[in-house]
C-alpha cells in the first residue's frame, strides 16, 4: 500500500486524509502548518484531550460546537469556568460530554495562564520543544516521539491533565512543530516553506 492517494485534483495526498470527506480540507490547509497563536494552540490541546479514546473525525465534526461551548477557547475565559459551567457543558449534546475531560480543560486553562505569566506566552513554551530535524522519525511512522514524551512529562509536572505522549504527538503534528506530511504529499513542500518562514516565538 502506498503512502499517498490521489486527491480530487489528481495530486497526491497523505493516505489518511481519504478516511473521511472532511479530512481533505483539514489536511490541505491546517495540518502541519506552524501555529504561534496561543488561542489556537490551547484549542488544539483541548481538542486532543477530548479525542483521547475517540476518533479525530468525531472531534472535527463537533469543532464548531466545542468553540461555542468553550467561548472560542480563550484561555482566560475558560479558566474562569465554574462548577455551574461544567454542569452546563455536561448537558450540551453538541460536544463530548465527559466530566473528566471537561474539568481537565478548565484546569488546563488555569495552568496555561500560569505558563503565559511565566514564559510570556503558551507559544514560546510549546515551541521550545520543537525537535531538531536529526531527531525526527520518518513521517507518520510513530505515535509518539522523544519531543512528545518530553513535552507530555513537563506538562504533567506543571499540573496539566490528559496530555499523554500520544495526545501530545498528535498536537505537534497538527500545529506544525514537525512536518509529518509524507514527502510525496502535495502539501509537504508548502508546509516546509511555511515552517521556514515561521518566526519562532520567544
Automatic annotation (TrEMBL):
<feature type="binding site">
    <location>
        <position position="27"/>
    </location>
    <ligand>
        <name>Zn(2+)</name>
    </ligand>
</feature>
<dbReference type="InterPro" id="IPR052891">
    <property type="entry name" value="DNA-3mA_glycosylase"/>
</dbReference>
<feature type="binding site">
    <location>
        <position position="185"/>
    </location>
    <ligand>
        <name>Zn(2+)</name>
    </ligand>
</feature>
<dbReference type="GO" id="GO:0006284">
    <property type="term" value="P:base-excision repair"/>
</dbReference>
<dbReference type="GO" id="GO:0008725">
    <property type="term" value="F:DNA-3-methyladenine glycosylase activity"/>
</dbReference>
<feature type="binding site">
    <location>
        <position position="181"/>
    </location>
    <ligand>
        <name>Zn(2+)</name>
    </ligand>
</feature>
<dbReference type="Pfam" id="PF03352">
    <property type="entry name" value="Adenine_glyco"/>
</dbReference>
<keyword id="KW-0862">Zinc</keyword>
<dbReference type="InterPro" id="IPR005019">
    <property type="entry name" value="Adenine_glyco"/>
</dbReference>
<feature type="binding site">
    <location>
        <position position="14"/>
    </location>
    <ligand>
        <name>Zn(2+)</name>
    </ligand>
</feature>
<dbReference type="GO" id="GO:0046872">
    <property type="term" value="F:metal ion binding"/>
</dbReference>
<keyword id="KW-0479">Metal-binding</keyword>
<dbReference type="InterPro" id="IPR011257">
    <property type="entry name" value="DNA_glycosylase"/>
</dbReference>
<protein>
    <submittedName>
        <fullName>DNA-3-methyladenine glycosylase I</fullName>
    </submittedName>
</protein>
